């Protein structure tokens, strides 16, 4: 009789962690939300001119920056779908709450800081600042409004979706700790970002 490989049988018969249906639905929405923003950046990467806030010094550099953003956004959009595919291994449950924490805190902080700075700029309390040497001409009011009503809402919703995905992967006992640490991290980083944006401390670029 041939040898019996118990290890191979155990590996094949080991139960695979099945993600909750709620996580799958959130992942699909998250992927679609990221893909929509990737399409927006792709429009400029391929030379689109609509709703431009100014004239960049180097149109080729402007297109290249948007092309890189598209690649990052597409990867970010695909990541949740890869995580919730059928038969995902158990380590997914351990890894994605961490990824979700980083994404949720980073995106929400980005939105809160930039939205606050744009409001201050629109009210004249503090002028908005843009990278020197990047724009040849710029309509600062149009830029502030576009950021306030389009870009930053996207970041905030993206962060909330990542938070929802992460929480859906955690047990009930771990959700409170995750939530409290995420809120604390977001508040601390938002305070640092605002102090930097207002010139109180050194530069802290948000992208």
Q: What distance lies between the first and last C-alpha atoms, to the nearest angstrom?
A: 65 Å
CA gyration radius, whole angstroms: 21 Å
**Spatial strand order of the main sheet:** 1-2
Q: Helicity, in percent?
A: over 70%
Count of alpha and pi helical runs = 6
Shape, please? globular
Sheet with most strands: 2 strands, antiparallel
Counting copies of identical and different chains, the oligomeric state is single chain
- Give the number of DSSP strands: 2
| SSE succession | HHEHHEHH
pLDDT averaged over residues = 86
The parts where pLDDT drops under 50 for at least 5 residues are 7-11
**Proportion in β-strands:** under 5%
Give the structural class: mainly alpha
Architecture overview:
This protein is mainly α. The chain contains six helices and two strands. Strands 1-2 form a two-stranded antiparallel sheet. The longest helix is centred in the middle third of the chain and has 32 residues, at 91-122. It starts with 5 loop residues before the first helix and ends in a 10-residue tail after the last helix.
Please write out the topology.
Layout: H1 6-13, H2 21-45, E1 54-56, H3 59-83, H4 91-122, E2 135-138, H5 140-168, H6 172-197
Antiparallel strand pairs: 1-2
Summarize this structure as a short list of keywords or feature phrases:
single chain; 207 residues; mainly alpha; two-stranded antiparallel ribbon; 2 strands; globular
């Amino acid at each position: 009789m041939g040898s019996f490989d118990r290890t191979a049988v155990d590996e094949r018969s080991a139960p695979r962690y099945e993600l909750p249906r709620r996580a799958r639905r959130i992942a699909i929405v998250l992927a679609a939300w990221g893909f929509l923003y990737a399409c927006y950046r792709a429009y400029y990467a391929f030379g689109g001119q609509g709703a431009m806030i100014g004239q960049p010094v180097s149109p080729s550099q402007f297109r290249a920056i948007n092309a890189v953003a598209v690649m990052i956004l597409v990867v970010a959009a695909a990541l949740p779908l890869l995580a919730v595919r059928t038969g995902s291994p158990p380590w997914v449950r351990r890894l994605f709450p961490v990824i979700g924490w980083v994404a949720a805190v980073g995106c929400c902080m980005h939105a809160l800081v930039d939205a606050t700075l744009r409001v201050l700029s629109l009210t004249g309390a503090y002028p908005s600042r843009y990278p020197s040497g990047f724009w040849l001409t710029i309509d600062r009011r149009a830029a502030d409004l576009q950021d306030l009503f389009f870009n930053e809402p996207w970041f905030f919703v993206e962060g909330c979706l990542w938070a929802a995905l992460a929480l859906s992967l955690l047990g009930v006992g771990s959700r409170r700790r995750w939530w409290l640490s995420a809120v604390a991290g977001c508040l601390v980083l938002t305070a640092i970002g605002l102090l930097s944006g207002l010139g109180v401390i050194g530069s802290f670029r948000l992208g």
